[in-house]
Amino acid sequence: MRVNGTPTRTIWPIDKMAVEVIDQRLLPHQYQTVRLADHAAAAAAISNMTVRGAPLIGATAAYGIALASNVDASDLALNSAAETLLATRPTAVNLRWALQRMTELLLKLPEAERSEAAWREAAALCEEDVALNFNIGKHGLELIKLAYEASGQTVNVLTHCNAGWLGTVDWGTALSPIYQAHDAGIPVHVWVDETRPRNQGASLSCWELGQHGVPHTLIPDNAGGHLMQHGQVDLVIVGCDRTTRAGDACNKIGTYLKALAANDNHVPFYVALPSPTIDWDIRDGVTEIPIEQRGVDEVLEVYGRAKNGDMLAVQIAPEDTQAVNYGFDVTPARLVTGLITERGCCEASESGLLGLFPEQAEKNSGRG
Ligand code: MRU
Predict the structure, then answer these.
(1) How far is the CA of 52 from the centre of ligand 1 (A)?
(2) Test site for ligand 1: of 89, 200, 204, most ligand atoms within 8 A of the Cβ
(3) Boundary (domain end) residue, out of 78, 100, 128
(4) Is 241 one of the catalytic residues?
(5) Last residue of a domain, one of 67, 101, 128
């Protein structure tokens, strides 16, 4: 996608020596890139949310292994780097998937060949991510087209958090169909949930939709139900951090409430995800997905730019207020109208997913 008109991705290698990423903590007020020179820096960038979004977390971890292989490509060193990277964030399964893919490939090779192979594989994983997300967009576009053909009016899509290109290598997941609809000339407008406490909707989704010229309106997280009751939402499309084999979808905290409101108002609720986001080992999302708990300052404070241009955090609760900060919640499959994957749309169920990914039927029947 574009930043000030220039085609840009969220992550790119520099001479097999370092990796550059966009510092997403500074958006929308500053566009700045950061160079990650070793696997510890890649791990820190994931933990402190310089980079975020399930697919991009996976891509950064893959490059983290490549960076580690430059220093020491022994089994011990690569396994230890993978452990460090895996410990950064618990919920998005793309992280585990990317690390497994890298280590399974590299540990089979002679040590002298590993570094070259690691850079090649990390780049391949990123290219694949772009293609998967493009295809999610292609399939999701059909849903937006149908809504447009039914009403002849601008299609209003509500989204939560940022599941746009900033959360992936390019295109995004939930926002990919929206970009493709916009590019195809279908009038589309996005209701963007601000997404407290970190406000990824306000800071990131609004920024990237604006860069691409897609009409959008920022709303407080609590407004979606009201808009749905008044017929102002044609469909909801959200991203995902982990989908179970049975179609339960874990995404940014607050997604579940949107699904409940959508269900009550007969608004279609879609979850967009590339296959590396599917955890084929589990079925029950509510009990089996580890939910990240983050620092309570994110709840007790709001961070932003003051009128004089200074970046600052302001306290919004009395001193010593107790707070809790769950990063994600699980939307049960029964509330999901459909899953949009790179292979097409399906029902949120084991049979729906296996219809698109039949190779998973034999491989693993899950333990749930
Ligand atoms: O905490 P974050 O910002 O990493 O959470 C991101 C989300 O929940 C996204 O919806 C999800 O990772 C999909 S990104 C294409």
Answers:
(1) 6
(2) 200
(3) 128
(4) yes
(5) 128
Range of the domain at 97: 2-128
Identity of the amino acid at 351: S
Atom of ligand 1 nearest to the CA of 92: 12
- pLDDT, one tens digit per residue, over 280-308 is 999 999 999 999 999 999 999 999 999 99
* Structural domain contains residue 84: yes
Question: What φ, ψ does residue 246 adopt, rounded to 5°?
Answer: -95, 0
Half-sphere exposure of 146 (CA within 13 A, CB side): 9
SS3 label, residue 174: coil
Q: What is the mean pLDDT of residues 156-169?
A: 98
Other Cβ atoms less than 10 A from the Cβ of 278: the count is 24
Residue 152: give its domain's CATH number: 3.40.50.10470
Residues 243, 191: one domain?
yes
Residues with CB under 6 A from ligand 1: 52-55, 92, 161, 163, 167-168, 172-173, 200, 239-241, 251-252, 327
**DSSP character at residue 223:** G
For 147-162, how does the pLDDT look when each residue is reduced to its tens digit (9 = 90+)? 999 999 999 999 999 9
Contact 56, 63 (CB under 8 A): no
Domain membership flag for residue 368:
no
Which contacts of 298-305 are long-range, i.e. CB under 8 A and separated by 24 or more positions? Answer: 298/197, 298/198, 298/325, 299/196, 299/197, 299/323, 299/324, 299/325, 302/199, 303/199, 304/199, 305/29
